[in-house]
User: Which sequence fits this backbone?
């Protein structure tokens, strides 16, 4: 491991307040089980293995008590706070909790609770790539499929050039002060914020895109659960 990566200190924020409606399950998707552990446990246990992690804030729904039954929450580096109506609200709540502990240039890593298949190598690659960046960056994967633009009736109107297009993944790693301010400003302006990078973009910053593995999937639909079961059997994800 690169020594500079190993000494990079950061906090993590994990929004986990969603209900996962597209899964069609009877419980939030983060509590579905893969290999005898919940998706949320897989994700948190992986993050806890990162050497530079100082602490981790998990944002949960106000009426969610399921996390209390998970052994991973006995870890002293994990704190729980109340999530919001949207992902961006939850992340902002986590950042506000950390306001008294972090300096403006400190790093905050935001990761989806439903992405348990990210690898340690990819996260370390992100840390290394943005180490000297003034704002930060995200993991992403180049788009490999042919892309079509359709009209309201689903008629295909054009084929879109994919050469400069990427799928945005997580983790997304940013310096604390710019991220906090960008999210606050975006929400006050009523902007649609689908990830942290979009808030920084709206504020005029240019986050760095760092290539990661395309199998860093977000579990959203039932078929994703089956794929995640296979991926989590791989040695680099244990």
Assistant:
């Amino acid at each position: 491991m690169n020594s500079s990566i190993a000494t990079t200190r950061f906090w993590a924020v994990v929004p986990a307040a969603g209900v996962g409606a597209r899964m069609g399950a009877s419980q939030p998707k983060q509590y579905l089980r893969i290999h005898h552990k919940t998706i949320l446990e897989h994700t948190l246990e992986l993050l806890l293995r990162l050497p530079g992690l100082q602490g981790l804030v998990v944002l949960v729904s106000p009426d969610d008590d399921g996390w209390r039954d998970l052994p991973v929450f006995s870890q002293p580096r994990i704190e729980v706070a109340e999530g919001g109506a949207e992902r961006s609200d939850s992340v902002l709540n986590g950042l506000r909790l950390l306001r008294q502990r972090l300096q403006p240039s400190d790093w905050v890593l935001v990761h989806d609770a439903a992405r348990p298949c990210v690898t340690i190598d990819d996260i370390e690659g992100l840390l290394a790539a943005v180490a000297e960046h003034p704002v930060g960056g995200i993991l992403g994967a180049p788009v490999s499929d042919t892309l079509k633009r359709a009209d309201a009736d689903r008629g295909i109107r054009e084929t879109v050039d994919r050469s400069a297009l990427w799928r945005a993944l997580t983790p997304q790693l940013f310096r604390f002060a710019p991220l906090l301010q960008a999210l606050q400003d975006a929400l006050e302006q009523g902007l649609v914020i689908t990830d942290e990078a979009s808030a920084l973009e709206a504020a005029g910053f240019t986050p760095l895109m760092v290539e990661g593995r395309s199998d860093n999937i977000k579990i959203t639909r039932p078929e994703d659960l089956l794929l995640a079961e296979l991926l989590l059997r791989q040695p680099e994800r244990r």
